[in-house]
Structure formats: C-alpha cells, structure tokens
Design brief:
This protein is α+β, with helices and mostly antiparallel strands. About 30% of the residues lie in helices and about 15% in strands.
Length: about 350
C-alpha cells in the first residue's frame, strides 16, 4: 500500500470524483467539479510518457489512444479523430475523454490501454501510472467510480479544448430567413468574434447574440480556424434560408469574462478601439414595454395568408413559400398574442 502514496502528487483532489458521484444529478458543463476531474484523468494519462527518440513532434496521450482497437469505445475515438474543432493532439484527447465519460466507455478504453504491451511502451514504468501495476489498479478503480456518474455534456462545445478544460457557455441561435442578420465580425487567429450587433437588424430583434460573443457554427458547419471572410461567404450562400448558429458567450458560467477568450478580445480591442463587450440586448425602442406572461415574452402577430407547399419538404420550402404569401397582398388580420 505504501507505493500508492505518490499516485497523484500534482493533481487536484480525488475528492472531486467523489463529489461528482455524491451530487446525484447528471454532471453538465456547468458543474464546478468537472474540470478538476478531467485534469486528474489527463494528468494520469500523461504521467510518464516517454519522449519520441526521433522527430520533433511532442508526444501526448492522444497518440496512444488513437491506436486503440475500435471496440466498445470506438464511437468516442472516431468522434475525436474527425473533430474539426480540435486542432491539436491535446484537443483531440480531451474530446475523447468527454465523449467517453458521456458514453460510459472510459473504463473499457483504459483497460484496453493497460492490456496492450505495445502501447504501454509509450510510458516509463518508473514514472508512469498506467505502466506501473501498483499504481494502475487504484487509477482503474477511480475510473470505475466515474462510470457510476451520469454525464450530460454538450459534446459539440469543444472549440476551446485545444487551450483549456474550462468551456464557454454555448447556446443555439435559430432565426427566420432574412436578407442579412446584421452582425459585424472580426477574425482573430481563426475565431469569428462579433464586435457589433447593428441597430434595427434581425440579430438585434432576436436579442440573442451580443458583442464579444464567438460564432462557432453556421447550420452545423464549424467556424473553428475560419479564414477571413468565411462566415460572410457561408451566410451569403444561405441567404433567405432559416439559420441555426452556435454561439459561444463571452461571459463564462461564473458571469465573468470567459478567461480563454481574453487574448482574442484584447486583439480585437487593439484593432477596434471603440469595441465594447455587450452585457445584454439593446432594445430597438427603449420606451416600448415588453409584455410578459408566466415569465415568457408576448408578441403581437398578424395573419398574412397561406399557400400550399405539398405533402413533403422541410424548412427549405419556406424560401419560396414566404415570398409567395407576401405577394398575395391579403389584408393582415391580428391574432392572439404569441408567447416565447
């Protein structure tokens, strides 16, 4: 038992794992214990990794994991290997760990790694946990404890895993077809930063996106490592179609500026001296009172007509149907307030 004392000398307390299990509720990205648990797992997988004899590429634990057989944990390995938002081995390894926790397959993957002599050669037994039998068993027991926890993680929220285990608040913004959203953006090291929401625009009316937020996806297409102008090109191609955008908030779960985003915001500020973080929606008419019922906003709607679109079709039929209704010039009729 004495050999187990130096198990995790530089890692966060193992108590974070026990607190996750004790919480009872599913663990989400907002959990205060999640990052500590992930750091602990990552530290154990990194400890004792040998440096490559040839080449200049730094070896990380993902280089071991990606060679595991595609067994029970295959879906998590595939997800990490094709993730377009993780650009480094560190990011892909973290993507795998989150997916494996959610899918309850981490224990299987760790057992496969521990039983593979070829992969264990990546580790120095004298300084490793996985290649040392006395240290490996307590670690695998800890992983089994984690399998008792239910994880409800947003696996698409992975654009900052290259840099940090601390993840931003991620929201989905769905909007109706329009000529232009009305957002001004700047590109900083492959990230698309919103620097202004134009007054009177669709984006301002929808009251979702704020200056300082990051555009992460447009209709499922990643903007991670975007080239200059890519978001505009994509929006132009989708002009007149319904849009679904993934937005990463500049405010973190604690209400403060999301720390990994700070260097990007500072770079924007250098280029745009008048840039200011937007703390909340800006009303188009500040004197207008917003009606609320049961905690939900009420909107006044008008009926403008109808048109047949057939028995089949999805959102794409709106591109032709909406202009056709507007061109019918039916007298608008008010309908009951609509809540959202």
């Amino acid at each position: 038992m004495g050999a187990a004392l130096p198990l995790y000398p530089t890692m966060p307390p193992i108590g974070a794992v026990l607190r996750l299990r004790a919480d009872g509720a599913p663990c989400t990205d907002a959990s205060p214990h999640l990052a500590a648990v992930c750091v602990l797992l990552e530290g154990a997988l990194r400890k004792g990794l040998r440096r490559p004899l040839w080449g200049f590429r730094r070896r990380d634990y993902w280089h071991c994991l990606e060679q595991l057989p595609l067994g029970e944990g295959g879906s998590s390995l595939r997800r990490a290997s094709i993730c377009t938002k993780a650009l480094t081995a560190q990011g892909r390894g973290r993507c795998f760990l989150r997916s494996a926790l959610q899918g309850k397959v981490l224990a299987v993957a760790m057992q496969q790694l521990a039983q593979s002599p070829r992969l264990l050669e990546f580790y120095d037994p004298s300084g490793s946990i996985l290649a040392n039998e006395e240290l490996r068993e307590p670690f695998l027991s800890l992983v089994l404890v984690l399998m008792e926890v239910d994880f409800s993680l947003d696996l698409q929220n992975c654009s900052f895993l290259d840099e940090s285990w601390l993840l931003p608040v991620s929201i989905m913004y769905e909007t109706v077809p329009c000529r232009a959203l009305g957002m001004v953006v700047r590109y900083v090291d492959g990230r698309v930063i919103v620097i202004e929401v134009l007054p009177g625009s669709q984006a301002e009316v929808d009251e979702v996106v704020l200056a300082g937020d990051v555009l992460d996806e447009i209709n499922g297409f990643s903007l991670r490592n975007a080239y200059r102008g890519q978001a505009g090109v994509m929006l132009q191609k989708l002009k007149g179609q319904p849009l679904s955008l993934r937005v990463l908030r500049w405010q973190g779960h604690n209400g403060e500026v999301y720390e990994p985003l700070l260097p990007y915001l500072e770079a924007v500020k250098e280029k745009e001296p008048y840039f200011q973080l937007q703390c909340g929606p800006r009303r188009c008419n500040k004197g207008e009172k917003r009606r609320v019922q049961g905690g939900r906003l009420l909107y006044n709607l008008q009926y403008l007509g109808r048109i047949g679109v057939g028995m089949f079709g999805g959102k794409e039929v709106l591109q032709k149907a909406i202009p056709a209704v507007l061109e019918s010039h039916v007298a608008p009729r008010p309908i009951s307030p609509f809540h959202q």
